[in-house]
Amino acid sequence: MEDTLINIRRDLHRIPELGFQEEKTQAYLLEYIRNLPQEHLNIKLWRTGIIVKVTGSIGSKTIAYRTDIDGLPITEATGLPYESEHKGHMHACGHDLHMTIALGALTACAKDQPDQHIIFIFQPAEEGPGGALPLMQSGILKEWWPDEIFALHIAPELPVGTVSSRAGLLFANTSELFIDFKGKGGHAAYPHLTRDMVVAASTFVTNMQGIVARNLDPLQSAVITIGKMESGFVQNTIAETARLEGTIRTMDPDAIALVKQHIEQQASGFEISHDCEINIDYGSNYYQVFNDRDKVEVFQGALGKTSLTFKEAAPAMTGEDFGYMLKEIPGFMFWLGVDSPYGLHHSKLQPDEQALSYGVEAVLAYINQA
Ligand SMILES: CC(=O)N[C@@H](CCC[C@H](N)C(=O)O)C(=O)O
């Protein structure tokens, strides 16, 4: 099985696709699923996602397991023989491993009927614009509504054979952040005749850090990260426009609104002081990942019968639209150690593939215990 899992992971790694464009990924997953014993399986498609129900022999409850399926707009730099064939796109957040583990667990359930009904959700667009919320709102789960739900995320900093989780808050509340600046361009030698948006945007980035440092309660946590900054055309011309792209993260769902309010106030001030126009768009927003205490305890108990080691997790500023599923259905998310020298969203992320079989073991341990 280990070699099969590695081959599946490599196949999926070659074809990363962005949110709601996962056509090849969906076709690959579907072909694999249709080749499994079909006796207890029911398959539904939702946009570029797939939902599979395995009917249990007792079926007194329904357990859902969710994997995300999209890649990121990152150019891979691993140099691996199976690196991304989609230039500019990469599975840099481990969703290739997440999908493979889901297929591994589904294969076991299709071959050896579980006691309970199990739903496998292959969900698009986790990295953006978010697939979990529209999937929940679509009603596709209505007749298969789960009693509980769980998911995993790879953890590059944890050793292989380790899983980690905690009761309560695991991941942050998030909001994307897109800020457009419009001033007046002109000759580099005549700044007084222009309104320079390189200066405005770069000062804006620096000043935003003061919102976290000075406007939020120091006992709360928040992050404002600008991951992309675009402006100008040539070295000797003052830029008329600038665009910032980033994300806001907070531990408290209400703190997101406070951070946004201060960003807007700062923008109003900049419109006056830099004589420019500023437009703000918050893109997609994710609700925190909040784990059910009882389910985490059952998971820990189930791991006792496996070769995996459990480590208590700290809350993280990562975001996950799985939070919207946990808002409606009790459950949990856990980290799976993959021991990569490069972290999530890095162009050289290189998870240890030995982690795949540990992932399947952890998922099946919970399914068979719950
Ligand atoms: C686990 C992980 O890395 N998730 C992403 C979720 C992205 C949310 C959204 N696009 C944003 O940037 O706010 C993350 O970046 O944490």
TrEMBL record:
Family: Belongs to the peptidase M20A family. N-acetyldiaminopimelate deacetylase subfamily.
Cofactor: Mn(2+)
Entry EC no(s): 3.5.1.47
Lineage of the organism: Bacteria, Bacillati, Bacillota, Bacilli, Bacillales
Active site (UniProt): 68, 127 (proton acceptor)
Name of the protein this chain belongs to: N-acetyldiaminopimelate deacetylase
GO biological process: diaminopimelate biosynthetic process; lysine biosynthetic process via diaminopimelate
Record's keyword terms, sorted: Amino-acid biosynthesis, Diaminopimelate biosynthesis, Hydrolase, Lysine biosynthesis, Manganese, Metal-binding
Cofactor binding annotation: The Mn(2+) ion enhances activity.
